[in-house]
Amino acid sequence: MSKKQKIILEPSWLKFLEDEFDKTYMQTLRAFLISEKKAGKQILPEASLWFHALNVTPMDKVKVVILGQDPYPTIGHAHGLCFSVLPDVKPLPKSLQNINQELIEDLNIDNRYTGNLESWATQGVLLLNAVLTVEAGNSNSHQGKGWEIFTDKMFALLNEQCEHLVFILWGSYAQKKGAIIDKTKHLVIESPHPSPLSAYRGFFGSKPFSRTNEYLKMHGKREIEWQL
């Protein structure tokens, strides 16, 4: 992953992130991904979708950030947006089922028929995973390989360059990564993760969707249409 390989990245992001692709950590990450492919391992999502979250949600259009950990390891699920799956995926992943359940309770919006969150992304909801790739069938397999440095840079940029964003941080992993966010400048909504293991510890009833829209409206921004 170097500039010579013509990384396809939306211009408002590329302006700030272009130099990252020539740094040592990114070259090490590139070497790791190449070696995984040579070893016959399938990397998800496909390479054209690694930066999909950035390309569908330009930096200058971001209003909300939802942070996930890494892509779904199930073939045919991940497409570069955290928590989102491709339209034909059934049943939905359990965390996404719980997100939809909270949306029903919060705003009486029922999205249980789909798990494709792309329309959120096009409205300015950056659906970002901390780690942008995973080996098929092996969750968290690409943690600690360099992606976290890249997405930490993104968090720092959003914190510094933008005003009045909403950061939705589900679970301790996301909250640790979001610790740098200036809470006097942005709204940070924290709760347990929507995973079945933790959703009943405070995710349900946290009302992240209505709280987000109230904050956006307060600051003169168009609210998110959460109905898919």
Number of helices: 8
Structural class category: alpha/beta
Q: Tell me about the biggest sheet?
A: 4 strands, parallel
Q: Provide the spatial order of strands within the biggest beta sheet.
A: 3-2-5-6
Order of helices and strands: HHEHEHHEEHEHEH
Give a verbal description of the structure:
- By secondary structure, this protein is α/β, with parallel strands linked by helices.
- Helix content is 35%, strand content 11%.
- Strands 3-2-5-6 form a four-stranded parallel sheet, with helices on both faces. The chain has a two-stranded antiparallel sheet with strand order 1-4.
- The mean pLDDT is 96.
What are the defining features of this structure?
alpha/beta, single chain, 4-stranded parallel beta sheet, 228 residues
Helix/strand layout:
Blueprint lengths: L10 H7 L6 H15 L4 E2 L7 H5 L7 E5 L25 H14 L10 H5 L2 E5 L4 E2 L11 H15 L4 E5 H7 L9 E5 L16 H11 L10
Parallel strand pairs: 2-3, 2-5, 5-6
Antiparallel strand pairs: 1-4
Offer a quick outline of the entry.
With 228 residues, this protein is α/β, with parallel strands linked by helices. It is built from 8 helices and 6 strands. The strands form 2 sheets. Strands 3-2-5-6 form a 4-stranded parallel β-sheet, sandwiched between helices. A two-stranded antiparallel sheet has the order 1-4.
